Amino acid sequence: MLINGQLVAGAATLDVINPATGKLLTRCARADKAQLDAAVLAAKNAFPAWSTTPIEMRRQILLKVAAAFEARSGEFARLLTEEQGKPLAHAAYEIGGAVAMIRAFAAMDLPAKVLRENAVERIVQLHVPLGVVAAITPWNFPLILLMIKVAPALLAGNTIVAKPAPTTPLTTLLFGEMCAALLPPGVLNVIVDQNDLGGYLTQHPDVAKVAFTGSTATGKKVMASVAGTIKRLTLELGGNDAAIVLDDVDVKEVAAKVFHGAMVNSGQVCLAIKRVYVPDSMYDAMCEELAKLADAHVVGDGLDAATQMGPLQNKTQFEKVKEFLEDARLHGKVIAGGKALQRDGYFIPPTIVRDIPDSARLVMEEQFGPILPVLKYSNIDDAIARANSTEYGLGGTVWGKNSKRAFDVAQRIASGTVWVNKHLELPPDIPFGGAKQSGFDTEMGQEGLEEFTQSRVINIAK
Ligand code: NAD
User: Fold this and answer.
1) In angstroms, what is the span from residue 45 Cα to ligand 1's centroid?
2) Of 182, 214, 165, residue with least CA distance to 28
3) CA of 217 to the centre of ligand 1 (A)
4) Which domains does the chain carry?
């Protein structure tokens, strides 16, 4: 782990499992409370110097981190596939995105803004850093979700304690190891737990902000735990995104895009398509196309070049998704996939389910796996109401040839992002955040950068 610029062993160790084999990949360091305290203290002590380092210098250091990261992208990608399970090409894509994220934030600025200037007064707004940021990440995109936090937090002048999910700690640890030579001691610290130190970190009195990505259930605990010290908080939580297909689309073309949006990363994407609403006139054709795509998809070890979809990331998620399969069999008609593969590792093939009621678990809850329920509608108002009927509001997609009509539908989806005729595009300069129980506040874009600052207004009499 990285604590105060030193690479240290853990107070204990943690077994890391390769999800493609279900077997031990390696053991890594695991922190205890004393090591977490040491990491927070190091970040606290590093804050005065880092926060007063000119932003130009912090920008240059971030660019050096991006260059070093890019130079080792092959090594990071392989390790990411081994610990996370995704196909190697997808892992490389994640690393590329993570590097681009650092560069995008390094290109941003936090200028003082003159809010009013006249004969009698001058009012200026500054954005000043907050202090120690706790960056807590999940296991589906361990690096890109870390960079969305680390890059803006550091550019703005904060220091960090990063804590990855315990089933994917290795790439975050490697990133910490790489940064040991590039950042002043204590500016970035990386610790690992076994799902036991998150609460201790979020309630820590010396942490000023928690930037959290994970499930809604854990997000609720985080929100409660920061209340004691009124910490700043960003919550990026779960989703149950609907795709609404309009009745003027080319079924084959849209089926391929919907399939990708539902199955990429084995469905373990907060913004994955988790339900698709299809007009009754094209319901059978769409189901058939989706099933064909599922049957042809190559599932396997992410290190095999032919693999299009890897395993579920961990055993707990594998078991959870198997429950959703059971629910799908019970309440709907499974037309592709449907059974975990009889092999080592946590493999579930792409599964398409039709004729399932809205009340089924697979429709109401976040499956976070490669199972897509296809739902029929006869009236667009009804489809929109059903799409909006869950506690989540992260993303959503609308598919239609008539762009005005598609835009009108998109405006009525109660979520933070809605794509029209595309999906999962998350440019670093565009703000991203959830509605309802998918979280609050923003990551990415200028707004995402300012979330790592405190507004300070200076109001001067002339
Ligand atoms: P999780 O909530 O179980 O874990 C996320 C992180 O929180 C891990 O690092 C975990 O160790 C830590 N944690 C556990 N208990 C904690 C506590 N009491 N206090 C503080 N931290 C604690 O989530 P997961 O299963 O790793 O990830 C999957 C979930 O993440 C899905 O619901 C998915 O939709 C969501 N997600 C959301 C986004 C987004 O941007 N909105 C992105 C990716 C994933």
Assistant:
1) 28
2) 165
3) 8
4) 2-237+438-461 (3.40.605.10), 242-420 (3.40.309.10)
